[in-house]
Structures are given as C-alpha cells and as structure tokens.
Amino acid sequence: MTFKACKKEEKLDREFQKKFKFEGSISVLTRMMVDPAATEKRGGAKNLPLRRGEILDVIQFTNQEQILCRNSQRRYGYVPRAVMLPL
C-alpha cells in the first residue's frame, strides 16, 4: 500500500468516526451477505446502498433493526438486519 493510499484510508476512517459518532478502533466483527432475494436499495444519508448477494463487513450491531457495515468500496452505513444472512 502506498503512502498516499494509506493517508486516504485514514481520512475515510476519521470521517466515518465523526459521522457515526464511533469511538475506538474500527474492527470487523464478522462478515455477512445481503439476501439474494432482497430488493436493491439506494443509500441514504447514513444508509449503505444494497446489492443482492454482496458481502459486507459488520462493524457494529447497533440495535434490533440495523447493523453498521462497510462494503468493498470502504463505504460505511446502516443496513437492515432483515436483509442480512450469515456466511
């Protein structure tokens, strides 16, 4: 990883921590898949866009309805628990 890419990742992580009021280090708890039968959704202010069959990194189990996740493009957001399947 180049120095420039490393700095960009650090900046994205700081923005994530500020936007979601997340404290501590960002660590992946587990990986889950978006249900292939679910409808695809656009992302919103704090919601992650969903694509069928996509594998997401789970950062935090926030409540009974939502999970804080990261996708392969290093974008963060909330995802409904109802559309997530364990790997």
Question: Would you kindly provide a written description of the structure presented here, covering whatever features stand out?
Answer:
- By secondary structure, the chain is an alpha+beta fold.
- It has one domain (about 20-85): SH3 Domains (SH3 type barrels, Roll), CATH 2.30.30.
- Helices cover about 20% and strands about 30% of the residues.
- The chain is built from one helix and five strands, in the order H-E-E-E-E-E.
- It has one helix at about 5-20; strands at about 30-35, 55-60, 65-70, 75-80, 85.
- Strands 4-3-2-1-5 form a five-stranded antiparallel sheet, with no helix packed on it.
- Strand 3 and strand 4 form a beta hairpin.
- The radius of gyration is 13 Å and the shape is globular.
- The mean pLDDT is about 90.
- This is PRAM protein.
- It comes from Certhia brachydactyla.
- One of its GO terms (biological process) is integrin-mediated signaling pathway.
